[in-house]
Structure formats: C-alpha cells, structure tokens
Amino acid sequence: MKNILITGGAGFIGSNLSLKLIEKGYQITILDNLSPQIHGNNPNSTSPLYNSVKEKTNIILGSVTSKSDWIKAIENQDAIIHLAAETGTGQSMYEIQKYCDVNVMGTAIMLDILANTKHSIQKIIVASSRAIYGEGKYECQEHSIVYPNERNDSDMQNGDFECKCPICGSNLVLLPTTENSKIHPSSIYGITKQNQEQMVLTVGKALGIPAIAFRYQNVYGVGQSLSNPYTGILSIFSTLMLKNKSINIFEDGNESRDFVYIDDVVNATIAGLENDTVSNMVFNVGTGKAETVKSIVDTLLEKYNTSSQYSISGNYRLGDIRHNFADISLAKKHLKFNPAIDIKTGLSKFTEWVKLQDTHSCDYEKSLNEMRERKLFK
Questions:
Q1: What span, in angstroms and rounded, lies between the C-alpha atoms of 279 and 271?
Q2: Calpha distance 236→238 (Å, rounded)
Q3: Reduced to 3 DSSP states, what percent helix, strand and coil does the chain have, rounded to the nearest 5?
Q4: Whole-angstrom Cα distance, residue 313 to residue 319?
Q5: Tens of pLDDT along the chain (378 residues)?
Q6: Torsion-angle region of residue 24: left (phi > 0), alpha (psi -120 to 50) or beta?
Q7: Which domains does the chain have, with CATH numbers?
C-alpha cells in the first residue's frame, strides 16, 4: 500500500500522521473541511497544522458529509485512515445533530461507497475514543469488577465526585480499562464514536476489508490547536496561563486522564496500518497511566512565567467522566506498541513549543456559558 487517504488529515493527529507517512515514502491525500474551530477563519495565516501539510499532500477541501467529496477522495487509494470528526465532549451534548451528521453519517457515506462501488481500498483504520467506555473499569471491595453508571447530579452538587458501585453504592477503586470492558458512553460524542467503530468493523468484515479501530486516550503535544475552546485541556489551560488569567479546575482536581503524546499516537497508528496480521480488532492507545488534572495544572504553572493562579471550584460538566486510563497490553502484544514519551517529557516538549506561539483568545468562557445556559455546566 502506497496511497493513503487521511480524512481530517490537516488536523492535529492527521497532520502529524501525514508528515510521518510521507517520510516513510507514502503518497498522502487529505480530505478536510478546515473547520474554523480548529484552523481559524483564514487557515493560510492562522493554521500551522494546515500549513505543515498543504504543499506536501494532495488536499481535497471538502466534507465527509458529502458523497461526491468521498468519491473523489477514495479514487486510487489503497487505505483509509478515518480521523475526521467533531471531538468536543461537552459541545456534543448540545450540538447533537452536528455530531451525528459528521461522525455517524460521514462514516456511513464512506462505508456505503465501499459497499456499492468499485474501489482499491485494502484497509480501513478508524479513530475511536476512550469516551466510548464512559466511566470505565473499577473494582468494588464487595462485588469485584464493576462498571459504574453516570455520576448522580445530586452527589456532585454536594461535592462527592467519586464513582459508586452500581450494586451497593460504595466508592470504587480505579482499574485500567481493557478493550473488552463494558461500552457505555456518557456523552453524545462517545456514542457517535461507538457507532463509528462498530460500523467500520462490521462493514469491513462483511466486505473482506481489514479494519482496525484505535481508542485514543487524551492526545496532546506540539502542534495542538491553542484556540479551540471545546477540546484539549492542556491547550486551553496554556492559553489562559499565557494571558495571566485564572484557572478554574473543575470538581476537586483529582479527576484523572491518560494523557498520550502525539508521537506515540502516530507510531501506534502506523503500526496498525503496516501490520498485515491484525484485522477487525480494537486497540487502546495511551500510556497506561492516569494523571490528575490538578497535577497537570501544577506542572504547567511551573513551566510558564505567569501570574496565573487556580481555584478548585467544584464546578462540573454533565457528561464528563471521573477517571479513565487504558490497559495497553493488547497493542503491545499485537503491534509492538510501547509509548516512548512520558508525561514529564511530553509536557516539557509541549510547553517549550507553546512559548514560541502567538497567543490567541480561545473563547473558553464562551464555551462554558453555552453549557451553562443549557444547564449542562454547574
């Protein structure tokens, strides 16, 4: 396989992946709508991501919601890496049609074309998400392995943010989430990612096209958009800090995520593309370690020369999960994937890059107000 179509290829993961594949001798075609939320209103001057790939790839300016754009993009391609998606967990709870149109229907159009037209596609890779797990995997002292439901609004109003056993109601111990864990997303974004993954694996198997889904954890690193207020807390916090603005840490600051560096995500994705022995499988892509939001903010404040301070407010967003970190043993076994960038190294790389960038307003408060108006942020 030499000709690779990457949808969303001008985005954060897509542009880094495109450049790495070009280094390896692949010919890259990108289908991307250059969303202003990510690239600004004038990508030629406001989007380093787009500018990094526009002269090195065949870029088709179009949408995954357009059948004609898909047909044009798929022609003469050997594989599809389907990254294009709306990605804001909170935003998905009120822009529901948009998220379903892009994430679910966009994928459906692709699969419909593969099922009903002649093509040369030999592999499909789809970007899934840790969001499909909802609250993930935990252990109850009395009931062993459990998968807690969404946290109660009333508990969180009283400052109790921990997940409860769905059987006895006791507090739980966090475990690494495996790929065979219960799938029960708590946001529209997570639901659409579950649908994408299942559709690609199901149709791929039926058509005899090897398909892989990567459940990416919280991806960060050099090149990440600093102006998107709907996703990427490292970028959001960094932008606020460089403007010496205060930081509002939600809940009690002990909520945690598996932050995985962009280079590791790219390497895992390429390993899946080039591995001919795996098909119709899903893989977690993370570090296998959980980092609290408070610890991340403390580290960022150390890195930047800023007068910003933070408060732990007890605010929370409906649809957010409490904790999640990945069990990555399956990717290690089948793809020889071993994350190379730990959180300390990754944050150093990221913050040194951020210091060199022009800081722009990311309208973060606007995004919170949008949720507050709909009673999704409290």
A1: 13
A2: 5
A3: 40, 20, 45
A4: 18
A5: 899 999 999 999 999 999 999 999 999 999 999 998 888 888 888 888 999 999 999 999 999 999 999 999 999 999 999 999 999 999 999 999 999 999 999 999 999 999 999 999 999 999 999 999 999 999 999 999 999 999 999 999 999 999 999 999 999 999 999 999 999 999 999 999 999 999 999 999 999 999 999 999 999 999 998 888 888 899 999 999 999 999 999 999 999 999 999 999 999 999 999 999 999 999 999 999 999 999 999 999 999 989 999 999 999 998 899 999 999 999 999 999 999 999 999 999 999 999 998 766 678 888 899 999 999 999
A6: alpha
A7: 3-137+176-373 (3.40.50.720), 138-173 (no CATH)
Helix axes 67-74 and 106-116, enclosed angle (nearest 10)? 60
Q: Which residues are catalytic?
A: 189
CB atoms within 10 A of CB 303: 16
Query: Is residue 192 left, alpha or beta, with left meaning phi > 0 and alpha meaning psi from -120 to 50?
Result: alpha
The pTM assigned to this predicted structure is: 0.96
> How many CB atoms are located within 10 Å of the residue 334 CB?
16
